[in-house]
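Suppose you are handed only two things: the residues of a chain and a line of SMILES describing flavin mononucleotide. What would the bound structure be? This form records exactly that question and the answer produced for it, so the two can be stored side by side and reused later without any lookup.

QUESTION INPUTS
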Amino acid sequence: MPTDSLRTTIAGLTMGSPVMLAAGTAGTLDEMGEVLDFRDVGAVVTKSITAEPRMGNETWRILESRVGMLNAIGLANIGVDAFIEREVPKIAAMPTKVVVSIAGWSVEDYVGVAAKIAEHAGVIPAIELNVSCPNVHGGTEFGADPGALRELLAAVREAANAQTLIVKLSPITVGTPNSIADIAASAIEAGADALTIANTLPAMEIDVESRRPRLANVTGGLSGPAVHPVAVKLVHEVYRRAARELGTPIIGAGGVSSWRDAAEFVLAGASAVQIGTASFADPKAARRVNAGLSKWVRTQGATALSELVGAVRLD
Ligand SMILES: Cc1cc2nc3c(=O)[nH]c(=O)nc-3n(C[C@H](O)[C@H](O)[C@H](O)COP(=O)(O)O)c2cc1C
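ANSWER OUTPUT
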């Protein structure tokens, strides 16, 4: 069980541990309960839920890469109506918090799903918006376009009622005119209560014998150890340039497999972390991370992890 020093509140979402399970890597809802004790995680983020059920992409759609994992699942999920009918009734019995991830291709898609999820605010305290989907009207990802993101958030904010609204940003802004801090500032201004940084990094691998892309979808998203330093830098940048001043909590995601990875995110400015890829190798990783973080808080002379948020020394 996590110690009291790890209690974490993200914009009204109170959690016993700052370690969460990342969207799409922990099943639709409670499947991980077969292999870990849910009391070890602060929250489970569901698979991204869309307005209609989706089969997702052809296989291969998830691969082990030399430096992590490559996936192009294509948002396979049961759709919001089946999620509410089959999964929501199980939530009350889960000894952890549940955050529902939602995705879509238009503002209407997101609003429709958010409104249905908001009806269950009693057991779903927070929504995480996956904004890494291309806008069917504009072509670019919602998360790469401050204007589209503002419009999306204003609409979802209204639909989501009093639920904590977490916006999960894409690292796709690397190399584009909008820095992730600009995108983050737009998200906060438009109603994001918290930010998850970041989703997978666009990537591709090719089998040199067959000369074919390894993923059926040709390209996909890279996760795991290779993306960790990239995500730490993005958290550092957003914390210093947007979130700290506005008091917006950040959740670090990308390559967390040990307590040191989690501690790095905390020092860069994250109040909580998510574990995704590491769960495939060690589903109980959260327990190790909790134990290591508790010890680290003590050895740093702090009484709570929150005292170390953003405490990287730059002198
Ligand atoms: C197989 C797989 C499926 C994923 N599905 C989703 C998803 O449905 N929605 C989402 O927002 N992120 C999804 N992600 C991204 C993760 O939630 C996480 O942001 C990313 O993998 C980085 O963390 P990690 O390195 O700890 O895995 C997925 C990642 C993987 C590996």
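WHAT STANDS OUT: The chain has eight helices and 16 strands. The chain has a mean pLDDT of 95.
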